[in-house]
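YM 10:42: TetR/AcrR family transcriptional regulator sequence, as discussed on the call
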Amino acid sequence: MAKDIIPIGDQTPSASPRKATKATKAKTARAIGRPTGKGRIGKELLIEKTAELLRTVPPEKLSLSVAARHAKVHLTLFKYYFQDRTRLLVDVARMLSKEIGDRVIEIEGANDAKSAPERLAIRIDAMVDFFLVNPFYHRLMVEIIDNETDPLATELINLWMGKTLEIYEGLIDAGVAEGTLRPIDPAFTFLAIMGLCEKILHAAKLVGRGGESPAQAAERYKAFVIDMILKGVGAEGVAGTQPARKVAAGS
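YM 10:58: structure's back
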């Protein structure tokens, strides 16, 4: 403890008002700085709160102050953990990317998916559901891709695309080997699927005018995208087949 800060309960008549003021300022600064104690708010919770906010607010409108207001914490807490807006977006994107990846693995396990068309269909199914909850994920990733100055943003995109391409390369190679897929570009295949799945938001609004519920629209849209993709990338004679899929527990 600094010499000029007098602990509470140990103040003496000789303590000057100036010293007491310094003690108060020190305590105030600590209260809005690094969190301490059992009830402290950690970085993971702030990331989750920001991801929650990005379900209704596009990333270009997000700032540290907006995120802090939504999380109902002091702005300094966000500045302590993230320094700037880009670092916050990178951490949110990392969490969401892991979430969709884990979800696909879960569904593949529940379906005991083996063939390449089955795995592609599962990825489309999971991605449509993901975009229904996280409508601005694609825009979030695009913003990070466009950031060519922040090393953490570059690192995330390289890791994200590297792992994604590895998955799609393996999936397409397996499909070619089993005679169910054509030898197509894995990067373009992924980007096409992602772009189509993002459009569920517009599709649901358009067909909703005819009285169809969002859930019904989503199911029809999944079937449409799966059929279109498999017909486009499938080998002749097997294209367009849609394997039956189970729903993973908890969905």
